Amino acid sequence: MPEGHTLHRLARLHTEYFAGGLVRVASPQGRFADHVVVDGRGFDHASATGKHLFHHYEGGLAVHIHLGLYGFFDTHLVPEGQDPPAPVGQVRMRVSEVVDDGLTHVVDLRGPTRCEVIDDIAVEEVRARLGPDPLGTDSDPERAWARIRRSARPIGALLMDQKVLAGVGNVYRAEVLFRAGLDPFRPGDRVREGEFLAIWNDLVALMAVGVETGAIHTIRPAHDHGDLPRRGVDRPRNYVYQRDGWACRVCGDDIRMQTLEARRLFWCPTCQAPGND
């Protein structure tokens, strides 16, 4: 599932593509029946909170998108005088606009968990159900800390709870806990406030890099040995995520993997030992 930086990057790009113009919204697949309500309207901007993306239209309407496990966007840039490519496969939503230089931006949404038209009040209701987003300009980490310090759930589970923190997924969860040297199984009520704030600040910085680059980068220069990533040459290199059975970049111990609340957790038993509390 895409992590929060991906949605914020999409919000930035879609704002650049479409803001200030009238857009055409179609549903080639036929499953997004609400598209007719926003087709031909002015596109105000796109925004993201956690893993939720919103396309905001004139008249107080928004398209609410959650990519889920399989959703993604294809982007096409169509030269003047040419037709956009025909939709291929199951395209839930197509958004297009002709820009000033004659080029047409076209984005195709495939396989989302959610794609629906809601009003601005419902947008705020969605946001109210989420924890603070490290990429939000007005996010308050105290809201997350208030929940963590009262919880006996492991900090590794709390960081993945979107009601506690919005936008943090499995990669960022594993990597920031390693960078903090924190045992992922330590209960939230045993995490110190300074430790949580260090994690929050690390997420703010790392996820901002993700927005700029479109990729997750977590390895400090001193630990980057130029090795190939485990899951393919086009994937980022990590400290612990998907490196189970491989040597830790820092101490050399074997990285471990265990299921925690139905998600795979990766950690170093030495760098993140309970005794490091």
Distance between the termini: 31 Å
Number of helices, counting only DSSP H or I runs of 4 residues or more: 7
> How confident is the prediction overall: mean pLDDT?
92
Strand content: 15-25%
Question: Widest sheet: strand order?
Answer: 1-6-7-5
Which oligomerization state do the chains in this entry correspond to?
single chain
Which runs of at least 5 residues are low in confidence (pLDDT < 50)?
none
Instruction: Give the second-level CATH assignment, the architecture of the largest domain.
Output: Orthogonal Bundle
CA radius of gyration: 21 Å
According to DSSP, the number of beta strands is 10
**CATH third-level topology of the largest domain:** Helicase, Ruva Protein, domain 3
Helix-strand pattern: HEHEEEEEEEHHHHHEE
Provide the number of structural domains: 2
Structural shape:
elongated
Please identify the structural class as seen in this structure.
alpha+beta
CATH class label of the largest domain: Mainly Alpha
Determine the fraction of residues in helical runs and give it as a percent range. 25-40%
Major sheet description: 4 strands, antiparallel
Report on this model:
The protein is α+β, with helices and mostly antiparallel strands and about 280 residues long. It folds into two domains: about 5-130, N-terminal domain of MutM-like DNA repair proteins (Alpha-Beta Barrel), CATH 3.20.190.10; about 140-275, Helicase, Ruva Protein, domain 3. It is built from seven helices and ten strands. The chain has helices at about 5-20, 35-40, 120-130, 140-150, 155-160, 170-180, 195-215; strands at about 25, 45-50, 50-55, 60-65, 70-80, 90-100, 105-110, 115-120, 255-260, 265. Strands 1-6-7-5 form a four-stranded antiparallel sheet. Strand 2 (about 45-50) and strand 3 form a beta hairpin. Helix 6 (about 170-180) packs across helix 7. The longest helix is centred in the last third of the chain and has 21 residues, at about 195-215. It is elongated, with a radius of gyration of 21 Å.
